[in-house]
Amino acid sequence: MGRLFTKLWQQQGFKVQSLEKNDWDNANTLLTKSDLVVICVPINTTINIINQAAPYLKESTILADFTSIKTAPIEAMLNSHTGAVLGLHPMFGATIENPDKQIIINCGGRGDYRWVINSINKMGFMITDMDAKTHDTAMDFIQGIEHFSTFVLGSFLHTNNKHPDNLYTLASPIYQTKLALMGRIFDQDASLYADIIASDRTRLDKIEEYSKYFSSWIAKLKLGKHDDFIDEFTATRKWMGEFTHQSQIATDEFLENFPHKYTKT
After folding, report:
1. I need a surface site. Which of 9, 11, 27, 143 has the fewest CB within 10 A?
2. Among residues 160, 166, 208, 157, which one has the least CA distance to residue 186?
3. With left for phi above 0 and alpha for psi between -120 and 50, is residue 22 left, alpha or beta?
4. Domain 2-130 has CATH 3.30.930.10
5. Do the Cβ atoms of 78 and 110 come closer than 8 Å?
6. pTM for this entry
7. What is the pLDDT of residues 121-165, one digit of tens each?
8. Domain residue extents for the chain
């Protein structure tokens, strides 16, 4: 992600320099002269790096981060730096080729950081404003439960030696898409997903709550409580409202352009 935004800011004419983990001898030279410092490191090292970098910063420097959790990093930046602070979360991987329709969540912080937001808007990204606690609660579902469920599915297929190659050829387009999304996750960095899923105890507690709820429905179905399933399905569909129909339309449009074939290389 750091390399991606280095390129994007350079394309706008900014001078961008990177401080890697073995470059701290250069910290005084690089950080003290920077108008913006963006912390872009694994989740479990973010707060340590914030605290390590902050003493080098001038008060006019904007201190920002790209971490996928926001409450603790923003608090650390506010406590360690007297200047402007900005908490950002790019909701995409660093392999994207086009910023169009890609979202960056802005959880704010302190001070005047408008030029940073304006520069990101000029890149073509969509900015969504959200407070840090609301963000982190949403990410417990979007990144915690969703990524963990995908990991468990892939691992379960591995354990049962049911290779997705074989399932893919039998699946309808919508399930080919689901298998492709699973494969996409496993094509990425394992340590990144371990950090995201286990980023804090609250997220793990929510995953555990989901697991228990999952198991409770298995128990009901084993007892033959199909009517309970139908009732809950119907109630959930009613609760979702127009979202269900719009999802049908959106996925139909997506599937028209989905390449329903897979060739091994």
Report:
1. 11
2. 157
3. alpha
4. no
5. yes
6. 0.82
7. 999 999 999 999 999 999 999 889 999 999 999 999 999 999 999
8. 2-130, 134-256
